Amino acid sequence: MLRIPHLSLNKPADWEAGTAINIQIGDAGVHLQKELKYNIDGHFFIPLHIPIADLASNGEGKLYLLDTKGSLLLLDPATQSLEPLFPVGHQMFSVDAQLSGQSDRWIIAQKNGTSLTTSAYSIRNGQQIWSMESRTDKEGQSGEVLAFTHDEQHNLFQFVRYVEEDYSNKNAISEIPPVYVQRYEIHCYNQRGILQQVLCLPILWQNQIEEINPSSTYNWQIAAANGFIYITESQTRTIWKLDQQGKLEGVSIVSFGLTGHILADVDGTLYIGAYYWNTPESEKNPFILAVLTNGFVERVAGYNDRLDKMFYGQYGQILIYNQQNASVTILEKKRNTRTAPEYGGLPRGTLILPSADSGNEATVWHNMVLEAQIPAETRVIVRYTASDHKRFLWQNKSYDFDEWLRSEHIPTSQKLKYIQEHWTVLPPNPHNAFFTSAKGRYLWIAIELVGSGSQSPLITKLQLFYPRSSLLSYLPSIYQEGPPDSFLERFISLFGHFLRQHHEQIAGISAVFDSEQVDGAFLKWLASWLDIVADDSWSDERLRAYIQIAPKLYQIRGTRQAMQQMVKLLIGYTPHILEHFQYKHLLHDPDWEKALSILYTDMPYHFLVILPPHSIASEQQKEMIQRMIARDQPAMTEAELIVLEPRIRLGGHTYLEVNSILASPSRLAIDNQSVVSYDTILTEGEEKDAAVFPFRLNNVIQLNH
């Protein structure tokens, strides 16, 4: 038999010893990290006869629509049904108002010059719940509300600018125009419209804004989530993040222009309408940019169309309104492969394994066997290198190679670049690959996984074989004269691998017959050797337990004890077994004979297997129990399975402390544990029909005596 020493990696601890880049390690194996990302999940259209001024989600799958005539409607996109909320001419707000919604109310923000009136209305009756004017400062000055938003708790936030004259230069000549300074604040209101907090933006930030373009009218947008407020403006191309203590930090979006739409997710990700900055006006197609918490940006896949409004819908969906074709695009969060910044935002990852030690210098490593599931449109790329020594020279400095790979001070991009430039690469998807130039005591392996949008390869096992040994040594010497990595040696190594696999299967054949190591269909096949016919209702754990105890059950097969143990093992309940000898003395009593003959029959070789209520989970399980009882019943006997009902039924199988509880009533008053079943026939004068529902005395019915 062809035997080659090898190293095998197939447990999480083996993989975790390596350096993982965008890799997730679990019991199932190694795969690319996954994350929740937005993808297009569908579209629906606004009825064309409704010209829209603004729209908002109610958070439950419907939309509030404000049309150009000022009326307000509720649209159900699934049925395209419309429900009028405010008719034309209500004079509560104009078509210039901005709309946001909740499940039980809608909120209207109406600008009046520089001030803002915000009102909430009930969807049940259209009544105003609360209304408020924008806040004035202590001098009584009304600031200009530049933008407003609400968070996931429906708290309201207003971004306000105050413009004041600077009187610091008292000796200034009167002909010189006065100097004005600007002050910016965030006003925070709760969902009842009550002011909770005022956040003043730092003076340094205000000066930076004014220095960019003091005369510009900015297109401000704000968003709020998870206790943070985000501020952005299309000209500055910067996003500022403000916490509740007034701490401010900014992120510049250099390569992109902003369209003025921003949403904040509770995980800290921002979604912004954007376009590429240095492109002609005709090519500035908008898309959605995701700004991650680490500062990296990436495009939301699939959407590249007009964007007139972006807002949250049901279950965290993002809804994008396109006014040109009156459509709404639904973006749904789905678990996709994570795109790694180390790979330019591509769904890739690498696992760099620590050195494999053969124990001998100048070892020629033979081949590698990789067990992996590789879906379509994904790839596995393996690179390797070997050496007799662990130390190597990098940037004029000596390093231990394993320590260098694990070092957090070496940038990941430099590690990947070194591996790509200096290591040998195997053909793609190498399930069984021959090492052509791996000579040395130590071998290093780097496994790169390339995923698609939703799919990732899964690595479950890696085997490294050494030293080199192949069937070439069994051929005549003329065939052994070529180089060690000749085509013939690589070709014949495939057959050596197949033979080795067969030898390993034969050597481990005993494990195939071990019920603790097999599962699924093969476990059911082993059970059939013991005359156990297992269907889909059997779990592997219960089937293994039954196989273990089956020899002991066969020793007492056909007895009451064996049947009770068998049923308890299958469903977890011990049955009551009632045999003829237990009640035959009552058959001579005329008062009992008829009832007992109906319930138990008078056949001496008939017995009952009685199970308590709710012990059978399905009809399939009941059929399985009946089949097992019929198989194990003694010869010339007949077993009947009875599953009790959880109620008292006159003339039926009713047993005290099994499926019924009796108490002593007083003047027909029944306590909390005793009920009269729907099978009981009640009479009052003449006989009535049986009640068809359970009831309690003095609740549904009254009895008189």
Task: Name the descriptors.
alpha+beta, 705 residues, 11 helices, Tail_protein_I, Phage tail protein, Unchr_phage_tail-like, disordered C terminus, Jelly Rolls, six-stranded antiparallel sheet
Please provide a written account of the structure.
The chain is α+β, with helices and mostly antiparallel strands. Among the domains are: 6-33 and 344-468, Jelly Rolls (Sandwich), CATH 2.60.120; 470-501, no CATH class. It is 17% helix and 35% strand. The strands form 12 sheets. Strands 2, 29, 30, 32, 35 and 37 form a 6-stranded antiparallel sheet that branches. Strand 42 (683-684) and strand 43 form a beta hairpin. Helix 8 (540-555) runs antiparallel to helix 9 (560-571). InterPro entries: Tail_protein_I, Unchr_phage_tail-like. This is Phage tail protein.
Distance between the termini: 94 Å
Level-2 CATH architecture of the domain at 6-33 and 344-468: Sandwich
Largest sheet: 6 strands, antiparallel
Assembly classification: single chain
Task: State the share of residues found in helices, binned by percent.
Answer: 10-25%
Backbone CA Rg: 39 Å
Low-confidence blocks of residues: 664-705
How many strand units? 43
Strand content: 35-45%
Protein name: Phage tail protein
Pfam families: Tail_P2_I
Give a concise summary:
The chain has 705 residues and is an alpha+beta fold. It is flat. InterPro entries: Tail_protein_I, Unchr_phage_tail-like.
